[in-house]
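Encode chain A's predicted structure.
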Amino acid sequence: MQPTPEQSPHHAYPDHWEADVVLRDGGTARIRPITTDDAERLVSFYEQVSDESKYYRFFAPYPRLSAKDVHRFTHHDYVDRVGLAVTVGGEFIATVRYDRIDATGRPASAPADEAEVAFLVQDAHQGRGVASALLEHIAAVARERGIRRFAAEVLPANNKMIKVFRDAGYTQQRSFEDGSVHLTLDLEPTAESLAVQRAREQRAEARSVQRLIAPGSVAVIGTGRNPGGVGRTVLRNLLAAGFTGRTYAVNSAFAADQATIDGVPAHRSIGEISEPVDLAVVAVPADRVPEAVTDCGEHGVQGLVVLSAGYAEWGAEGRERQRELVRQARSYGMRIIGPNAFGVINNSDAVRLNASLAPESPAPGRIGLFTQSGAIGIALLSGLYRRGAGLSTFISAGNRADISGNDFLQYWYEDPDTDVALLYLESIGNPRKFTRLARRTAATKPVVVVKGARHSGSTPPGHAVPVGRIPDATVSALMRQAGVIRVDTVTEMVDAGLLLADQPLPAGPRIAILGNSESLGLLTYDACLAEGLRPRPPRDLTTAATPQDFRDALAEALADGNCDAVVVTAIPWVGENGEAESGDGEVLAAALRTAAATGPAKPVAVVHVEIGGLAEALAAATSTAAVPPVVRASAPAAPDASAAPARRTAPPTTQAAPPTAPTGSSVPTTPGEGPTQQRSDTDPGDTLAVPVLGRIPAYPAAERAVRALAEAVKYAQWRRQAAVPGKVPEFLDDTIDEAGAAARIDALLGPDPDPRGRSLGHDEACELLGRYGITVRPTLPAPDPDAAVAAAARLGYPVALKTTAPHLRHRADLGGVRLDLANEAALRRAYGELTDLLGKPTELQPVVQSMAPRGVDTVVRATIDPAAGAVLSFGLAGAPSELLGDTAHRLVPATDRDAAELIRSIRAAPVLFGWRGSAPVDSAALEELLLRVSRLVDDHPEVVSVALEPVVVATQGLTVLGASVRLAPSPARTDLGPRRLPNY
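Encoded structure for chain A:
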């Protein structure tokens, strides 16, 4: 007998339905179930709704709620009758409820799977995306309670509500009955509903970041009365940067008659400021932060940058203080950067915000930089400053309690001022979402990541995020699958960022090397080979080469159709007296700029050794330099448009770099999308004025330049491939029994499954795999020699005799496997040797299996990692994968392209493709097997582990000799549910 709603175990308050969400305008709100304690809030909310909205809700004038109405709308069983509210500052701004109904529209209980739904949004909050967010959450609740369809009656004039339903992306039907529009929504998520949800998520989260880094007014709470201190430093930096908005200083200790400080209006609280404040920078002790947050929240501040320390980095008490800070800020609709943050910088000419502790503001540029560490942020800012690089935005998020790297990926995705995103991350709180956002962003602009704490598995202080079990090499492989450029150090991140921000992407790996040092050229050549590039023999211009020689050689290399990129190496010239001369670096820089400006759009990098004046010239980016007369070579043919991916427009001339920059800078090039513009032929006597708008990156070591170039080559290849995404072949659908597998999984787990899961027996695993077209070669138990002989007779000779004891499985090196047993005598002899050597049959658990065709032994695995999600892995069986870690990985679901790349990504891949004259294996069959395993774990999240070992791949077909499967209750998929921020 099914329990009644009042008796149902679901009657308890479902706290997992509570969620913080980001609305369309970037503000936050809280969604939670309505309880019996909400009567006064409900009445107050309803009083603030206009008569028109009430009419749309009840189809008649309904000025106030009766006591019966209030009781009905606040008493729910959380199964058949559910109500959710959206709150800001603890008060309702919107509600939604559903009531389960039967086919006649009357109240019902399960198994009825339809419910009537109704919304009401306060007029002041309409247009903020509140109803759309509510629909996502109430639909998820309904699906959890077994409801598959929503029915809604809407007046034809209620266009806003009709649009909410129409734009949700669910399959729906619409009809006009009795003067109202009758809508029926199928709540099963569709590709369209998921796309709609993610598009709304992107707009909302990007807007929430924009509110923080492009405010119209800033208040610094905690501005000291005396020079020095954190607050006073931030105020000084705001003023020095020329912030375009209004600035206020706030300190409760200011004297009542103090009007200004440093020329800025001074106030004792946010409430004293008569104009709206968009952003508050909080620089007060941690125990005074709650008071400041309340002051901000009650007076409409939109966001906070909390510089104050004393939070999760200080232990358990600090962790709780941090969680309370986030809860308090979100209750007022505010988002937070920090706490323990270093600050934010936005170099947009329309904003010019430096709300940070950075001693020197970076120059404006095209690079966006996010870091979780203040110390790393200082180092990166300093390094970029020295190398003349400019930033669009800089964020040092500290403890990253709220705003994270994911939020900034959402913002940078459409930010016209950012061409490259650099991130220093010590953890990835939501890896599935990070991978999805990084893949989308990388399709339009490079994303370069340094992952700190690679081996410690640390999480941001105060965060409760899943800790991944997969090794760091796997994390790197999965990032590359998403198009992320993963580097090991912050120096490599800057090196790659400079090249990607200022140069076009290379069309391939063919590298020309030229310079005036044979030795430096050879070092560059070796570095290219080590990075998998295809360098051409270095061209030695000799130590007598002049800037003119460099210019001509570079122009010739760029015009060569067999060259995709150029590395220029330069050392000081040797004078007539035999002493090294620093030479005129500015002249050499101008020569290189001219050649880059007149040639096809190909990336150029410079490796230089102590050439006086060159570094400064490479860093300059604000003047128009007159260069010597150009001796033109024949005009090169225009490059194939498809071979040089387009880049965004370079920064305007007003974006100045620092006046000087030592080793490792960049030389300006022409404007536009890298050096894509080709100059017309000019008379040799002319002097060309070259606009200095881009830079040729320069490096103090060949290895650094080549490594950055190699990353650009791999990224460009990924971009070309991502333009035509892979797919799951349709032929798989004809051989996959998804429904049958689901029913079998439910039966194997049982009505009350163990949360720890269970491993399937051999026959159970084979049956489940068979429903996805994966056949495991049969094995028969052999508890004694006679049973072994009988099994062999049944299977047919030749056979293999194998132990299945866990400590001997797949260990042919220990003698636990005997192959090619052609007859009964050989089988009995092998059985005796096996038991004499390794132990009794009861310990060895021997089995007999017919021999498979000869081939290459491989391993296919799929696992559910708590942090990264489902991961598909491939490698060669035995030492290559187990000892050397030569395993490739891809995220599930895998496409045909993923499967093809997977088997070609391992270092031992040549063994599969005819190494040393051997016959290539059936790679198509192997790719199909990988796709089938991927489909299985993607269709059924209860399948938490699959291992096929060994898989013998022959020249025709393959044979799966062993398989293990583990099931567990389906984990929650936060990446597929309704939009929500992490809970605290």
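Residues 616 and 660 are 5 Å apart (CA to CA).
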